[in-house]
């Protein structure tokens, strides 16, 4: 009689005994000490006495300190943007009523130029903390936050809308409450686009770092030591050597961030890809391998991180989603539960709670309505000082900027779609191209623009071409990073099916690639559109070596009115830009979003 021996199953990866290396612990410990030192250094700067006039030295020895301070500001802004994006996107995706108000509001927020609210934010926070640098540092963090949050919120929101129907049904079958549905389904499903949009948002923070760390408001001049102020000072003085040295330092910081943070996150997030067959290759990261071989990291995760996350999960479920039921009371000497005295008490309690919520909502609505009414009256009084010539200039400027924004989006789509899909479908190529794309996307175009301006002034198109180029440099990466995320999220089994059916050329694009990346492309278009409107402020009005170059446009109108202190024209121009964004959202983006949900959904 022959015996059949079943193969011994291999232990799961998480159950296998980890292999530790002492050198991995050394690397991790050195990294923790460096981060702790930079945090302490930045904290000492925040609590130091207020120094509104800071001398920015162009000495190379100051660059490591400036790089550390700027990175800490970026990190603080990113953490705020991450929390905001998760809460905002989850709220908008979970309620149709909230979605109708929150998504248009997000469109408006991302289109408001930084110069429109910079004076109020800076002066208010400095006045709130007059004895320390805390207000000035917090203002810089909040301004960087405005360049990061909107893109991440849009990306995660569209990822939540793209969750397949069968996964939603599975969550309903298992009776997952909102918190468990968020942590077990929604956050893992949206992890890949969230990470890629985080990389883009971080790059967008570098773009506006120069404006956040050094600015002039009338007679007040504020500067913070950092890479942004270093580059701004070098550009203002025309010191090309210092400018190139600052850009080289910025590139080093970007490469380190890519290798130490973003690439490990991309490799780790590959586990959340939805596919029914295993892919041939997956992203890898040497830093992730070091972390997995570190006994120090293993001990921190086992004794601190995992218990903390489990405790938070348990506390949130008990405080907000637990539905305890009191045991039935037993009558004395009886084995049967005593009937409730009033059978309608629970229903009356629900009616009372509903009435309280309704009253609270009505009160909050009245307060918000009163604030909005006061704001409208104040805005009308302020804009009443505008002259007829200024009113006639606003629509002409809006049309000119609209044409430049449209040209920027068309040019961006034409090259980012084929390049993004080509890179995203090849993991090995993505690993090699990702650092290059990250570096190029993170270099502030505002630092290079004075040099490009001098080269393009005598070219056909002149400043118009230069403005479109700067807007493209600041917005095309929103498209590329979202398309990369969409291409990498295409399930491997769908690609195998396309190969089995011999889909080639345009048929492959029409049947598989374009429908698969369309929701991600739409997210990129929405964020790139808002970024283009915002970038028009620095693209249409440029100051270099005491010379000002400007063209007709809404961005130039906002920048010139902010510099001149003409707050009536600044408000009217900003409201016009916001109104244009709302109209475009209703006529274009909302309809494309409906199309993406109905036809291009992974079900």
Short structural summary:
The chain is built from 23 helices and 4 strands. By secondary structure, the protein is mainly α.
What does it look like?
The strands form two sheets. The protein has a two-stranded antiparallel sheet with strand order 1-2. It is mostly helical and 603 residues long. It is globular and about 70 Å long. The protein has a single domain, classed as MetI-like (MetI-like fold, Orthogonal Bundle), CATH 1.10.3720.10. The chain is 75% helix and 3% strand. The two termini are 50 Å apart. β3 and β4 form a beta hairpin. α18 packs across α19. It is built from 23 helices and four strands.
Sheet bearing the most strands, described? 2 strands, antiparallel
Low-confidence segments, ≥5 residues, pLDDT <50?
1-15, 324-344
Please estimate the helix content: over 70%
How many domains? Answer: 1
Overall average residue pLDDT: 79
In which order are the strands of the major sheet placed? 1-2
* Fold-level CATH name: MetI-like fold
Shape: globular
Total helical elements: 23
CATH class placement? Mainly Alpha
Radius of gyration: 27 Å
Mind telling me the CATH superfamily name? MetI-like
The total beta strand count reads 4
């Amino acid at each position: 009689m022959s015996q059949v021996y079943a193969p011994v199953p291999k232990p799961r990866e998480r159950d296998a005994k980890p292999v530790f290396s002492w050198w991995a612990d050394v690397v991790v410990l050195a990294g923790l000490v460096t981060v702790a030192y930079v945090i302490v250094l930045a904290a000492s700067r925040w609590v130091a006495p207020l120094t509104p006039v800071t001398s920015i030295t162009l000495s190379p020895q100051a660059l490591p300190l400036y790089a550390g301070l700027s990175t800490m500001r970026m990190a603080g802004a990113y953490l705020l943007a991450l929390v905001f994006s998760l809460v905002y996107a989850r709220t908008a995706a979970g309620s149709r009523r909230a979605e109708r108000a929150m998504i248009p509001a997000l469109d408006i927020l991302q289109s408001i130029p930084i110069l429109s609210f910079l004076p109020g934010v800076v002066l208010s926070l400095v006045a709130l903390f007059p004895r320390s640098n805390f207000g000035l540092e917090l203002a810089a963090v909040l301004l960087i936050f405005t360049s990061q949050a909107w893109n991440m919120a849009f990306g995660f929101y569209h990822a939540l809308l793209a969750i397949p129907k069968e996964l939603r049904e599975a969550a309903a079958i298992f009776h997952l409450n909102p918190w468990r549905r968020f942590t077990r389904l929604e956050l893992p499903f949206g992890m890949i686009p969230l990470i890629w949009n985080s990389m883009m948002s971080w790059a967008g923070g570098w773009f506006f770092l120069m404006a956040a760390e050094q600015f002039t408001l009338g007679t007040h001049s504020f500067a913070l030591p950092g890479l942004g102020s270093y580059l701004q000072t070098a550009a203002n003085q025309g010191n090309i050597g210092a400018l190139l040295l600052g850009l080289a330092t910025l590139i080093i910081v970007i490469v380190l961030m890519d290798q130490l943070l973003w690439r490990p996150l991309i490799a780790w997030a590959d586990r959340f890809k939805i596919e029914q067959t295993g892919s041939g290759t997956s992203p890898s990261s040497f830093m992730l391998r070091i972390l997995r071989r570190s006994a120090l990291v293993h001990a921190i995760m086992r004794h601190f991180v995992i218990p903390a996350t489990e405790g938070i999960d348990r506390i949130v479920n008990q405080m907000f989603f637990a539905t305890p039921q009191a045991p039935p009371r037993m009558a004395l000497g009886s084995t049967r539960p005593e009937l409730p005295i009033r059978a309608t008490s629970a229903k009356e309690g629900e009616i009372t709670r509903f009435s309280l919520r309704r009253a609270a909502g009505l009160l909050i609505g009245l307060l918000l309505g009163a604030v909005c009414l006061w704001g409208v009256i104040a805005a009308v009084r302020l804009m009443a000082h505008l002259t007829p010539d200024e009113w006639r200039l606003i629509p002409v400027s809006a049309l000119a900027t609209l044409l430049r924004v449209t040209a920027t989006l068309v040019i961006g789509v034409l090259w980012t779609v084929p390049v993004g899909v080509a890179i995203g479908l090849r993991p090995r190529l993505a690993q090699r191209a990702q650092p290059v794309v990250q570096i190029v996307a993170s270099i502030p175009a505002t630092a290079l623009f004075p040099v490009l301006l001098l080269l393009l002034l005598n070219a056909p198109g002149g400043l118009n071409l230069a403005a479109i180029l700067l807007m493209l440099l600041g917005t095309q990466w929103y498209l590329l990073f979202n398309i990369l995320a969409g291409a990498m999220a295409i399930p491997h089994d769908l690609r195998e099916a396309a190969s089995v059916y011999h889909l080639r050329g345009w048929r492959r694009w029409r049947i598989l690639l374009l429908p698969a990346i369309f929701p991600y492309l739409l997210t990129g278009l929405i964020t790139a559109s808002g970024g283009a409107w915002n970038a028009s402020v620095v693209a249409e009005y440029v100051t270099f070596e005491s010379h000002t170059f400007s063209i007709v446009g809404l961005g130039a109108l906002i920048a010139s009115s902010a510099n001149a202190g003409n707050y009536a024209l600044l408000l009217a121009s900003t409201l016009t830009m916001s109104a244009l964004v709302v109209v475009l959202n209703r006529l274009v983006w909302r309809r494309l979003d409906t199309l993406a949900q109905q036809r291009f959904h992974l079900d």
